[in-house]
């Protein structure tokens, strides 16, 4: 089964390095937003930013490698031309690229939100401790439910702001790169 696997002869070094650059841009920006908006300490916010960006990057590349063989031949040729040579051959490719960019932005936002939510829930310090539950009253349970809803809203807003700022910085780098 694995005897047919070979290392590729051509590597998209530019794409790999730009993906690394994008991580180096996104992690500090998102870590700063997590620190300011979610009141994490700096170490924790950078940890969450690294974890969320690395996991979403890996999931994104896995999805890319699943979808890529299903593309039509002209789209595949455009994709290879863009990845290896940073050029689009067909005139209608720019519209497809813009739509794809919006889809990737919102898919990444949703993925980062759920990853951050999972990380915050599973890595919180209160999970392993047993708490003695005091007598709960309906008013207290309503406060608890509203607090959970507020935290989810705050997490969504924070993730959207962090993702938007990091994508804006990455877009600025891409624009600078293309204007050379």
From TrEMBL:
It comes from the Bacteria. Pfam families: FraC (PF24301). InterPro entries: FraC. Keywords: Membrane, Transmembrane, Transmembrane helix. The chain crosses the membrane at residues 12-34, 46-67, 96-120. NCBIfam families: filament_FraC. This is Filament integrity protein fraC.
């Amino acid at each position: 089964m694995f005897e047919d696997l070979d290392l590729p002869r051509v590597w998209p070094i530019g794409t790999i390095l730009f993906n690394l650059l994008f991580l180096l841009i996104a992690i500090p920006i998102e870590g700063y937003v997590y620190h300011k908006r979610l009141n994490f300490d700096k170490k924790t916010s950078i940890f969450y930013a690294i974890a969320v960006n690395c996991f979403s990057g890996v999931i994104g590349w896995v999805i890319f490698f699943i979808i890529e063989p299903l593309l039509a031949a002209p789209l595949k040729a455009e994709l290879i031309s863009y990845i290896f040579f940073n050029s689009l051959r067909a005139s209608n490719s720019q519209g497809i690229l813009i739509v794809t960019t919006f889809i990737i932005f919102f898919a990444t936002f949703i993925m980062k939100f759920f990853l951050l939510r999972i990380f915050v829930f599973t890595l919180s310090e209160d999970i392993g401790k047993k708490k003695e539950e005091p007598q709960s009253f309906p008013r207290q349970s309503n406060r608890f439910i509203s607090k959970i809803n507020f935290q989810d809203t705050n997490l969504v807003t924070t993730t959207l702001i962090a993702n938007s700022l990091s994508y804006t910085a990455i877009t600025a780098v891409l624009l600078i790169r293309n204007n050379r």
